Amino acid sequence: MPELPEVETIARGLAERVTGDVIESIWLTSKPQTLKSSAQEIAAATENTLILNVHRMGKHIIFDLERNAVASAHRAAKPVKAKPLRRRSELSETTKSQWIVHLGMTGRLQVCEPHSEILKHTHAIAKLASGRELRFVDPRRFGRLSVATNGAFETLGTEPLEAALGTFVALFRGRKTPIKSALLNQKLLRGVGNIYADEALFRAGIRPRRRASTLSREPFARLHSSLKEVLHEAIAAGGSSISDYVNSSGDEGFFQLQHRVYGREGEPCLVCKTPIKRVVIGGRSSHYCPKCQK
DNA sequence: ACTATTTCCTGGATGC
DNA sequence: TGCATCCAGGAAATAG
Q1: CA nearest A199: which of A228, A166, A170, A172?
Q2: pTM for this prediction
Q3: Span A277-293, mean pLDDT?
């Protein structure tokens, strides 16, 4: 289940592998729910574009695209002789757009050779000028594809790794919801999912059911630094491979080996040996140590 | 303006 | 073995 560290790992890997390549054409699924923008809109915004960069916003992967003379020339290549130089006005005509991919639970972006087997549940195939293909595969179909053409893609929420303490505390002020649920609310913080919410709360010594509004500045300060710490450590480890997560090269992350509470129900707390508890909060399983977390 | 609950979706695990 | 049932989860939609 890709959360911020997994999405960051994937985006970095993709940036390395496809930046500078050109999307020549794209095939899209007819499954309506997977496409947040229409197939026509996605094709129009992505075909014949140069990939300028790939980066992450919350749990979204953003491809920054540009359609310009370079992209068109790349595409025309081969047998045709070099065309006469375009006029300056034509050369300077560029259109920027963005392709936005949310992986949901089981979404994967793979860069592969065209002859490699097309996996079941493949919902998009972009043909690249390098000869490779960029494919979106998502069995459970919680993932979403969309494009942004007018200005930069916007999404709500604060980036947890960029939030100063004051900003962080202000997000939760007056909220009666459990702190666990607040951490998962993408309109407040973006990118935190179930694993890292549980891990950050454990490190901060806060029970997941505590109402956000009942926490004073001191526990918030601990939570603020714990969250950043766990996210940084997870990114360094290439993310957590639970179920079927792999990065864009098909490699597993290994932060799951460092989980202290997530998925450890009944196992001894690494600090005090008390069995880790699992409860359901807002429909999400939440793991904590009843002794270490207050 | 918030908060809580339901819905979407499939593969893997579990139970009889 | 085979079949039914449950469960995982992000975010949008719905209800309160």
Answers
A1: A228
A2: 0.88
A3: 93
A102 touches strand C (CB under 7 A): yes
Distance (Å, whole) CA A71 – CA A94: 10
Q: Out of A27-41, A168-182, A204-218, which region has the weakest mean confidence (pLDDT)? A: A27-41
User: Is A193 (CB) below 7 Å from strand C?
Assistant: yes
Among candidates A173, A179, A109, which has minimal Cα distance to A143? A109
Structural domains of chain A, ranges and CATH numbers in brackets: 4-148 (3.20.190.10), 165-288 (1.10.8.50)
Q: Is the CB of A120 under 7 A from strand B?
A: yes
Task: Give one DSSP letter per residue of A4-69, joined into a string.
Answer: HHHHHHHHHHHHHHHTT-EEEEEEE-S-GGGBSS-HHHHHHHHTTEEEEEEEEETTEEEEEEEESH
A40-96 pLDDT, tens per residue? 999 999 999 999 999 999 999 999 999 975 555 555 444 444 555 555 555 567 899
A6 CA, B2 C1': Å apart: 30
Residue nearest to nucleotide B6 (CA to C1'): A283
Least confident of A15-19, A25-29, A257-261: A257-261
